[in-house]
């Protein structure tokens, strides 16, 4: 008798990510792709281009996705999950439309999508769904028979996402000078987004006050802070702060910025800070530049000891979490009873985004939601 886990009805998994430049010639066209119609000031684009050039014009994100792809394939093989895994990006090669075309011509009809974005927001969820709808429309125009595309739920509170970050904070604390270790504060960081996007993130009934985006981050931050307190026996103050703000200065975005926060903490006599980038799945450019370069330089200038803890990246526990999430969804699609796995106070996120969830400024078709034009 076989007990192989059953991924049916799905016949393939697509790892869908942001994408990033692979060399100096890619930087400007990549930024053009990312900011198409997004109203980002020219000055900000020049500045962000410099962040990439500082690292040879190469973002680490593509290699991190290749490592995650390997980790997923290894985990699936070891656990008897027979499901091919593909990889595509929204903003750089391998482009989503090309990979989806390849999946269709390979014969895949029921595709499940994992995004490298754990939380609920327009940028972190609906924008991926809009790009999926665009890719499906392009394939339809080519006369291809469209597959059915579903998206895995947001996984911010899955233990396979949270636990590696708890270990990361413990490791960072151990790297701080011993005399400041117990007094260190924890600064949980995530991408700043416009207040208006935060307030309308998630299902309509939870809009206002930072919406699902802020609530989810606060829940993860609290889970990690509680676990670190239990593990170390030291109750460290913590706060959720933001990084990587773009957009026009007169439009309000979530605050405080990590650099302002470090200055304020230093002013209050806090002896050290651990920066915990809970908003990101891997150590991509936002982490390498905004935290490891800019915020770390700010701390050095202040004379404030800081450490930056690891993101999940290709941690085998994260790969196992993806397996758990996909088997959970597959079972639901087959009509089987499943208990979704989630830590914290919020419960598992929805499988299908309801109408009005993380609305776009200008409404556009989005795949894998209740009101999607494609099943
Ligand atoms: C919530 C969020 C995530 C986390 C969820 C997820 O991971 O998806 C994320 C990830 C990422 N953001 C990335 C890069 C960029 N994001 C930009 C611009 C923006 N991001 C926003 C939000 C988010 N971004 C927003 C509201 C804007 C303003 C423009 C707009 O409203 O759309 C810009 C334009 C220049 C600038 O203004 O910074 C760039 C270059 C990379 C690649 C890094 C690499 O190359 O290693 C990654 C993983
Ligand atoms: Fe971004």
UniProtKB/TrEMBL annotation:
GO CC terms: cytoplasm
E.C. no: 4.99.1.9
Reactions the enzyme catalyzes: Fe-coproporphyrin III + 2 H(+) = coproporphyrin III + Fe(2+)
Entry binding sites for Fe-coproporphyrin III: 59, 128
Chain positions recorded as Fe(2+) binding sites: 191, 286
Gene Ontology MF: a single term: ferrochelatase activity
Entries under Pfam families matching the protein: Ferrochelatase
Physiological role: Involved in coproporphyrin-dependent heme b biosynthesis. Catalyzes the insertion of ferrous iron into coproporphyrin III to form Fe-coproporphyrin III.
Protein name (database record): Coproporphyrin III ferrochelatase
Organism of derivation: Streptomyces indicus
């Amino acid at each position: 008798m076989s007990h192989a886990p059953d991924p049916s009805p799905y016949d393939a998994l697509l790892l869908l990510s942001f994408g990033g430049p692979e060399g100096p010639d890619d930087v400007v066209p990549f930024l053009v792709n990312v900011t198409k119609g997004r109203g980002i000031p020219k000055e900000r684009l020049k500045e962000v281009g410099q962040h990439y050039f500082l690292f040879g014009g190469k973002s680490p994100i593509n290699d991190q996705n290749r490592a995650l792809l390997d980790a997923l394939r290894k985990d699936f093989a070891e656990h008897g999950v027979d499901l091919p895994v593909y990889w595509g990006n929204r903003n750089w090669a391998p482009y989503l439309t090309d990979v989806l075309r390849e999946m269709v011509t390979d014969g895949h009809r029921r595709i499940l999508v994992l995004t490298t974005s754990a939380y609920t927001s327009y940028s972190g969820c609906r924008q991926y769904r809009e790009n999926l709808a665009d890719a499906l429309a392009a394939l339809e125009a080519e006369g291809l028979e469209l597959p059915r595309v579903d998206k895995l739920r947001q996984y911010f509170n899955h233990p396979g996402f949270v636990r590696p970050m708890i270990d990361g904070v413990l490791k960072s604390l151990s790297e701080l000078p011993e005399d400041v270790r117990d007094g260190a504060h924890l600064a949980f960081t995530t991408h700043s987004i416009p207040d208006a996007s935060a307030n309308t993130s998630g299902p309509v009934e939870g809009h206002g006050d930072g919406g699902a985006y802020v609530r989810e981050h606060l829940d993860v931050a609290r889970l990690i802070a509680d676990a670190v307190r239990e593990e170390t026996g030291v109750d460290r103050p913590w706060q959720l702060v933001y990084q990587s703000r773009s957009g026009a200065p007169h439009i309000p975005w979530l605050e405080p910025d990590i650099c302002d926060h470090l200055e304020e903490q230093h002013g209050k006599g806090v002896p050290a800070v651990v920066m915990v980038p809970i908003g990101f799945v891997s150590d991509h450019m936002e982490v390498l530049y905004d935290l490891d370069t800019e915020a770390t330089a700010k701390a050095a200038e202040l004379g404030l000891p800081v450490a930056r803890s690891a993101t999940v990246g290709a941690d085998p526990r994260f790969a196992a979490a993806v397996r758990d999430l996909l088997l959970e969804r597959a079972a639901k699609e087959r009509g089987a009873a499943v208990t979704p796995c989630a830590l914290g106070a919020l419960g598992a996120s929805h499988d299908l985004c309801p109408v009005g969830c993380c609305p776009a400024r200008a409404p556009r078709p989005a795949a894998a939601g209740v009101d999607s034009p494609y099943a």
